[in-house]
Every structure is written in structure tokens, then in C-alpha cells.
Design a protein that fits this description.
By secondary structure, this protein is α/β, with parallel strands linked by helices. It has helices at about 40-45, 55-65, 75-90, 105-115, 140-155, 175-190, 205-220, 240-245, 255-260, 290-300, 330-340, 345-360; strands at about 5, 10, 20-25, 25-30, 75, 95, 120, 125, 165-170, 195-200, 225-230, 265-270, 305-310. The strands form four sheets. It has a six-stranded parallel β-sheet with strand order 8-9-10-11-12-13. A three-stranded parallel β-sheet has the order 3-6-7. The protein has a two-stranded antiparallel ribbon with strand order 1-2.
């Protein structure tokens, strides 16, 4: 019988319930923080070096969040336990924790959160963007990387008996190191049967996206176990200024999503509730409404068996405790919106439960 590996051990696939397929619960994301120079601080209407205060959220959401170190700190056990508990209270059951070495924090504490909230949490091995890699990965061979990932899958993470149930990968600059790491992750997936999530960024060119997909498939990755996250980043490249000047020209571009889906892989529409969904010009295409429209169109195009969703809470101001929507945005906003748009319950169950089961079980 196939099972799913959680931080509390393996569970039957039928126990997974409503699942968010891309989140960060305990993580140190300080590498995202931009340097606070004296000039930056003089221009800022708030003290960027101070802890977040509710009265400053409007400024943080409109351009200053990248300079606030406190915003990138998700290491508070009590805070993140409250956030996961709210997800449970709203009807959530399982969270895929996508933090890999270099950004993940205290995997043992994930188990505490899981036991306290009764939410299934799946931990990750793999790596994130190259600039976050712990030093000892820099000179590893592909085989050494594969061996490390297998050890975290079969034995446990960071000296604990908490085993990884998922492999996270990321291509940022697209260096040979990153592509070698991608091969190692695929090899580990081939040996264990685990799924692989591939992160790309908003600015990742289509040629690089094709190389990523081609590399995974050439190395033997089963397409049905491969998940491309943040797919909504490809839905539109139009900014607010161009939209206001040429509103009749606005349309979503689902070509890359469909090209990938037609090869049998899966996609995740996520980052719902992101603070990038604000009134700054550069954030127009990342609004939740744009993601939702693209999601509905992909469903209506017949791809519902290959789609999952998530919130990707990766900033403190995305938590409910700090004025955000938290992990429940997909429950309180996305699912009702899908229902209102005519998507039936069986399709929603596929996206939130059955597709995650297929991806996560091994």
C-alpha cells in the first residue's frame, strides 16, 4: 500500500484531506532582504530596522517590505503554530512545507506544530536557489548530492528521524551547478518514487523553462510526479501602465502552462494572498484575480487532473497575525471563487485532495 511521508511518519494516502501544495512554515528567508543603506532609510517613511508594526503594513506592502529583515523571519514557533491552527480550523488538513536546506529551519519543531494542530506536514529535502546553498553543497558532485537527498529521505533530516517526503528544486540563475543539482534531485526521485517540485522565478525566460523541463524528463523523471510551481508567473507580462494605456489588449498567456501540461507534468497556482497583490505598477500581473482567471481557464481547458494550489506563505506580513491571509487563503477565497465560477465539487476535490495524493504518495 502506498503511503505519504509526514513529519510524524507515514500515513495512508486517504488521510490527506484538503491540501495546500506549497507553503513555508518554519523558514529563514533573510537572503531576500535588501541592504538598508543610510540613503534608503532616509527615503523610507518607517524605521526599516524595527520589528513589524500594524501601523506600518501599508508602507511595507507598497514597496518597502524587501528592506524589512523582520518580514523574512518565519522562525517563531508560537506564531507559526497559530497560523497552522487557523488553517486547520478553516478546514485544512495537510501542508507541503517546501523549505529546503539553506532556508528551512528546525525540522524537529515542524513535528511539534503538526502534533499540536493535527495538520499533516510534509518536509522537504533538495535545495533552493544557489545563493542559499549551505557551503558544503558548493563542491558536491551530482552523485554526492543524490546521496545526501537519499539520506534525508530514508534516514532523517539534520540528525533527526524526521524524514523528507518531498524533493524541492529551484533554478534561478540557471548555472551549471543548479542544473547538476536538478539532475541529482531527479535521480533521487527515480530511486524513491518521491515527487519533485521545481521553482522558477517571475523573470525566468521561456528558453530556460524548456531546458528545465527537458532536463528533468531526459534524466528519467516521471512527468506525473513532477510539479512546476508558481505557474501563474507566466500568465501575463503586462504591467499596470501598459494595461491602463491599452486595456483592450489585455489577455492572459497560458501558452507555457499548456505546453508543460501537454507533456504530462503538473502545475501549481500559488502565492494567493501575496503582498505583491497591491497597487504598485509592477505587481499588476501577480494579483490574485489574475491567478484565479488563469486557474479557471486551465480547468475549463481540461487540465484539472494536473493542477494543485497553494498560498506560498513566505513573508511574515502574509500571516494572519501580521495582517495577511495566512494559509487559509485558498480555503476562504480560491475555493469559493471556483464554486462561483461554476467549477463543480468533484473538480475542486481533485485539485485540493486527489491530485496531491497522486503526487505525494509513493
Amino acid at each position: 500500500m502506498k503511503t505519504i511521508m509526514t513529519v510524524c511518519g507515514p500515513i495512508e494516502s486517504s488521510k490527506i484531506g484538503l491540501t495546500s501544495m506549497h507553503e513555508h512554515i518554519l523558514a529563514d528567508l533573510s537572503f531576500f532582504a535588501s541592504p538598508i543603506t543610510d540613503e534608503i532609510q532616509r527615503k523610507s517613511p518607517i524605521d526599516l530596522r524595527s520589528p513589524i508594526e500594524m501601523k506600518n503594513l501599508c508602507y511595507l506592502r507598497n514597496g518597502w517590505l524587501s528592506y524589512c529583515n523582520d518580514n523574512w523571519d518565519l522562525r517563531d514557533l508560537n506564531l507559526m503554530t497559530r497560523e497552522v491552527q487557523y488553517f486547520k480550523d478553516q478546514g485544512g488538513d495537510t501542508i507541503l512545507e517546501a523549505s529546503a536546506p539553506g532556508i528551512r529551519y528546525n525540522t524537529e519543531k515542524l513535528r511539534e506544530i503538526s502534533k499540536t494542530t493535527n495538520v499533516n506536514i510534509i518536509a522537504s529535502t533538495g535545495l533552493y536557489r544557489e545563493e542559499t546553498w549551505p557551503d558544503h553543497f558548493a563542491n558536491m558532485s551530482v552523485k554526492d548530492m543524490q546521496a545526501h537527498f537519499l539520506d534525508e529521505i530514508k534516514c532523517g533530516i539534520d540528525g533527526t528521524d524526521v524524514k523528507a517526503g518531498h524533493i524541492k528544486t529551484a533554478i534561478a540563475c540557471g548555472s551549471e551547478n543548479e542544473f547538476n543539482f536538478l539532475k541529482a534531485a531527479v535521480w533521487a526521485a527515480n530511486e524513491t518514487g518521491l515527487m519533485v517540485t521545481v521553482h522558477t522565478s517571475y523573470g525566468t525566460a521561456i528558453e530556460k523553462r524548456r531546458r528545465i523541463l527537458q532536463t528533468c524528463l531526459q534524466e528519467g523523471m516521471k512527468p506525473e510526479k513532477l510539479l512546476l510551481c508558481h505557474i501563474h508567473n507566466t500568465f501575463s507580462n503586462q504591467n499596470m501602465q501598459s494595461f491602463l494605456q491599452n486595456q483592450e489588449l489585455f489577455q492572459l498567456d497560458l501558452s507555457w502552462a499548456k505546453e508543460a501540461l501537454d507533456k504530462g507534468v503538473n502545475v501549481c497556482v500559488d502565492l494567493f494572498g501575496s503582498p505583491s497583490d497591491n497597487d504598485s505598477f509592477d505587481s499588476f500581473t501577480r494579483a490574485d484575480t489574475i491567478k484565479l482567471i488563469g486557474l479557471v481557464r486551465l480547468i475549463n481547458s481540461g487540465y484539472e487532473d494536473q493542477i494543485v494550489i497553494g498560498n506560498d506563505v513566505y513573508q511574515k506580513i502574509m500571516t494572519r497575525s501580521y495582517g495577511g491571509h495566512g494559509y487559509a487563503r485558498i480555503i476562504n477565497y480560491v475555493i469559493p471563487a471556483l464554486i462561483n465560477s461554476g467549477i463543480d465539487k468533484s473538480t475542486i476535490d481533485k485539485i485540493t485532495t486527489h491530485n496531491p495524493i497522486r503526487l505525494l504518495q509513493y
